[in-house]
Write a structure and sequence with these properties.
TIM Barrel, alpha/beta, 8-stranded parallel barrel, 11 helices, binds 3-methyl-2-oxobutanoic acid, 40% helix
């Protein structure tokens, strides 16, 4: 079990201290994250792209998530551990509950995350009623990237922005306490954070959220090719002779002192 609680994260939000979140998919990196004092570890289905070599998160299975979450939970000491529910693993209440239980009971997660709202709000409610804490994910939804027409900023039009605020409120109304906001205008992320009573964790959502998350491999410059505008290679920035731990510690410092994300990592 984690020593970190949602109540403590809420206290950080209340005193305007930013929450630090990073992805991890194995034991060694988890130890580095713990050493740097990361508050929340996300076993993201981004592992499908950065570890498994797929070109989207869609092929990731529940077995894959159980396997990687187990590696992380085995050495996790303090951080809250959230595990992604992969594509098509939460299509109805029974299936979602069965798969979420595997991630919690078998793999050791403290909370599960899934993408979207609408009909899925009832799924979130069902899990929460069965004592499974749920983290929401709004904005750019990588599992629906085909339908969204690619990796694009979401919520720029007024109607889409209003809808996202309604979606966030609907999730909160059934007991969701944390929502990841991916790739949305900074002003919209700020509205959700102030108008909805929820802890918001941004990735490409600007600085006015409760906390930040990055894909660890982007932060360390491991991911080959072009990295997303919203990410930053913290290892390269430190220069020669610096370690993975230094880079993660620098990310923690930059999130806490609000120097990350800068305008160049954010969207209008
Ligand atoms: O899968 C993942 O790593 C994520 C983050 C990008 C938020 O969902």
């Amino acid at each position: 079990m984690s020593l970190m609680t949602v109540k403590y994260l809420q206290e950080l939000k209340d005193r305007n201290e930013k929450i630090t979140v990073l992805t991890a998919y194995d034991a060694s990196f988890t130890k580095h994250l713990e050493q740097a004092g990361i508050e929340v570890i996300l076993v993201g289905d981004s592992l499908g792209m950065v570890v498994q070599g797929h070109d989207s998160t869609v092929p990731v299975t529940v077995d894959d998530m159980v396997y990687h979450t187990s590696m992380v939970s085995r050495v996790r000491e303090r951080a809250l551990l959230i595990a992604d529910m992969p594509y098509h693993s939460y299509q109805n209440k029974d299936q979602a509950l069965e798969n979420a239980k595997r991630l919690m009971d078998e793999a050791g997660a403290d909370m599960v995350k899934f993408e979207g709202a609408g009909e899925l709000v009832a799924i979130a409610e069902h899990l929460i009623k069965n004592n499974i804490p749920v983290c929401g994910h709004l904005g750019l939804l990588p599992q629906s990237v085909e339908e969204l027409g690619g990796y694009k900023v979401q919520g720029r039009e007024q109607t889409a922005a209003d809808k996202m605020i309604e979606d966030a409120q609907a999730l909160v109304d059934v007991g969701v306490e944390i929502i990841v906001l991916e790739c949305i205008p900074q002003i919209l992320a700020k509205r959700i954070t102030t108008e909805v009573d929820v802890i918001t964790i941004g990735i490409g959502a600007g600085v006015d959220v409760s906390g930040q998350v990055l894909v660890l491999y982007d932060l360390l410059g491991i991911t080959p090719g072009k990295r997303p505008k919203f990410s930053k290679d913290f290892l390269k920035e430190l220069g020669q002779g610096k370690s993975v731990t230094d880079a993660i510690a620098n990310y923690v410092k930059a999130v806490k002192d609000l120097s990350f994300p800068a305008q160049e990592h954010s969207f209008n």
